[in-house]
Amino acid sequence: MKDFFNSPENPYAAYRNPVYAKRGMVATTQPLASQAGIEIMAKGGNAVDAAIAAGATLTITEPTSNGIGGDAFALIWINNSLHGLNSSGPSPQNATLGAMKARGYSEMPHHGWEPVTVPGIPAAWAALSKRFGKLPLIDVLQPAIRHAANGFAVSQTVALDWNNAFQIYKKRLHGEQFSHWFDTFALGGSTPRPGEMWSSPAHAKTLESIGTSYAENFYRGEIADKIAAFSKANGGFLSKQDLEAFQPEWVNPITTSYRGFDVWEIPPNGQGLSTLLALNILEGMPPLDRTDEQTFHHAIEAIKLAMTDGDCHITDSRFMSTKIEDLLSKAYASKRRSLISDHAIEPYPGNPQPGGTVYLATADSEGNMVSYIQSNYEGFGSGLVVPNTGIALQNRGNNFSLDPSHINRLVPNKRTFHTIIPGFLTKDGHPVGPFGVMGGFNQPQGHVQVITNTIDCTLNPQAALDAPRLRWVKGKNVLLEPTFPTEIADALAERGHQIEFSTKSGLFGRGQIIWRNNESGVLIGGTESRADGTIAVL
Questions:
Q1: How many CB atoms within 10 Å of residue 214?
Q2: Would you state the pLDDT for residue 4?
Q3: Do 384 and 484 reside in the same domain of the chain?
Q4: Distance CA 357, CA 185 (A)
C-alpha cells in the first residue's frame, strides 16, 4: 500500500497531481458537488451525509448523466465493516414481453415510457440517511436545493454533453409527452453554454419534498401521484402501485482476492461481477507492466472473457441460473485463463460447474468511506420529464432483452442487468478505499484498469486514473485513447487485435478514487481529468 500511496509523481505529466487531506475528502465530477459534500461534513455530517449531498447536487449540476429519476448503488465502510446498498428499481408490473410485442417492439426502445423502470435514487438517499447518516436528510439536501433554486454556472464538459443530447432529441423525440424535457432542459430552443447560468425551481421543490418526507412523498405521496398520472396519460406501464411497492435492498458485497488485496463489488443485478471475473483470470498471469504489450494483451483477453460471461449470466439475482460463487471460483478462473493464447481470440461464455452516470467517493475523519454511483443510464434517460417536478425518468429498462430465452429477458417486477457499479478495496481486513469508473458497459473494464494500475504498477490514485485506457468492444475489436503508446498499439495489432484510436468524449469512462493510509489516517485522492472532476477537502 505504501508504494502507490507515496508514489512521488504522476508519470502522465500532462495531468494533475493527487490531493492529500486528513479530516475529510469528497471526489466528484463537479466542483459544486464536491463542495456540497464538504459543506455538509463541516456542519457535522459524516461521509454518508457528504455522499448524499454530493449526489443530490450532481442531479442539478450534471443532469446530462443522472437525475432524481435514476438508480443508485453504494458501498459503505462504517463501524469497521463494509455494507452494500442496491437501490435499482424493477420493471413495472404491467411490463411484459407480450405487451412489448403488442406495441410492435422486437427489442427494447431507448426512449419513451417502455424502458422506464422504478426510480431508485430518492430511496437510496433516504435509506443511507436513516441507517448511517448523522444529519436530517432535509439539511443534507440544502446545497442541492440552493443550486437548483438560485442557479449555477454550467461547466465545460456538461455543456458539451447537454448540447449533444439536445441535437439527438430534436430529431428523435416528438409528441406532447416529450415536450416537458424541452421545457425543462432546452427552454427557448437551446441548451446552456459553458459558464451560462441555469436553474430549475421545480427541481428544488422536489428535493425539498424528498428531504422533508425521507422520500415518502416520492413513492407514496404527491410526487408519486404526479408520476403515475403522467404515465397513465401517455400509455406508460409505471403505476403508483409500482412506486409504493419499491424498497431499496441492503446486500452483502461480493469479493475476490487480487495479489494480496480484496476487491469488492455489489452483487448482481450489477455488472461488478465481471470486474472480479477478469481479476481472477489476471491473477494467474504476470502483473500489468505498462511498457509490456504482452501484459496488455492478457488484460484485453481477460476482460473480454469476463464481459462475455457477464452478458450471459448476469441479471436480477433472483432469476440467475448460475451461482455467483461458482462464477467466482478460482478453479473456474483457471479454466477461463487456459483459453488465452499469444493471439486475440473470439470470446464465448463459459459454463461453470455448480460448487448517461456519476460516481463519487467520500471519506471522513472517523474512518467512514463511501463508494457511491447513480445514473439515468443514457444521458438524460428516457427523454421524459414529469411536468413541474424536474424529474427526468431513467431508461434503464433498455437493457432488458425481449428474447424469451435470454437470462435478462423482460419480466414484471424484475431488476435488469445494471451497468453502474461502485467499487471498494481492502487489505488484511482494513479499508484502502472507494473507487469507481463510470461509463456504461465500460465500467468493469475501467475498474480492472484502475486496480491493475494501482496494485500491479503502484500508481497513485491520480496517475491510476490518468493512465491511457483501452476498451474492448466485441470480438477482437479494441478501442484505445489517443494518448495510448503507439508501439504498444502496433504490437497488439500484430497479435490479432483490431485496434482503433478514438477521441469520443466519455467513451473510456470517468472515475474517482480515495485511498486511506491506515497508519497515519491521511487520505489521498484522484479525480477525473477527462471531465470537470474536482476534489474538495477539510
A1: 18
A2: 79
A3: no
A4: 18
Nearest-angstrom CA–CA distance, 386 and 173 = 15
Distance in angstroms (rounded) separating the CA atoms of residues 98 and 301: 38
| Residues 170, 307 within the same domain | no
Question: What is d(CA 184, CA 187) in angstroms, rounded to the nearest whole number?
Answer: 6
DSSP state, 193?
A: P
pLDDT of res. 8: 63
Sign of CA dihedral 63, 373, 29, 275: negative
Residue 306 CB partners (closer than 8 Å, separation 6+): 274, 275, 277, 278, 281, 336, 444, 448
The one-letter amino acid code at 441 reads F
Q: How far is Cα 422 from Cα 83, in angstroms, rounded to an integer?
A: 12
> Contact 307/349 with Cβ under 8 angstroms?
no
Edge-to-edge strand list for the sheet holding 249-251: 249-251, 81-87, 71-78, 369-375, 358-364, 24-28, 534-537
pLDDT on residue 15? 66
Indicate if 357 belongs to the active site: yes
pLDDT under 70: residue ranges of the chain:
1-2, 8, 13-15, 351, 353-355
* Whole-angstrom distance, CA of residue 281 vs CA of residue 309: 12
Distances (CA, A) of 235 to 94, 99, 238, 416: 11, 11, 9, 21
- The reply to whether 350 and 441 lie within a common domain is yes
Q: How many residues are recorded in the chain?
A: 538
CA count, 13 A, side-chain hemisphere, 388: 7
Residues 157 and 87 in one domain: yes
CA distance 151 to 405: 48
Q: With CA atoms as reference, report the closest residue to 512 among 491, 481, 533.
A: 533
Count: domains in the chain: 2
CA–CA separation, 342 and 297 (whole Å): 8
Which residue in the list 357, 362, 416, 527 is annotated as catalytic? 357
Domain that holds residue 48: 38-249+379-399
Q: What are 428-472's pLDDT values in tens digits?
A: 999 999 999 988 888 999 999 999 999 999 999 999 999 999 999
pLDDT tens readout for residues 62-111: 999 999 999 999 999 999 999 999 999 999 999 999 999 999 999 999 99
Set of cell numbers at residue 409? 429477458
> How far is the C-alpha of 423 from the C-alpha of 285, rounded, in Å?
22
Q: What is residue 355's predicted lDDT score, i.e. its pLDDT?
A: 43
What pLDDT, on a 0 to 100 scale, did the predictor assign at position 9?
A: 73
Alpha helices in 62-104 (DSSP H): 97-102
DSSP E strand boundaries for 355-429? 358-364, 369-375, 385-386, 391-392, 423-427
Residues 6+ apart with CB under 8 A from 331: 355
Do the domain assignments include residue 22? no
Asked if 479 contacts 473 with a C-beta cutoff of 8 angstroms, the reply is yes
Q: Do 262 and 393 sit in the same domain of this protein?
A: no
Element (H, E) at 430: strand 430-438
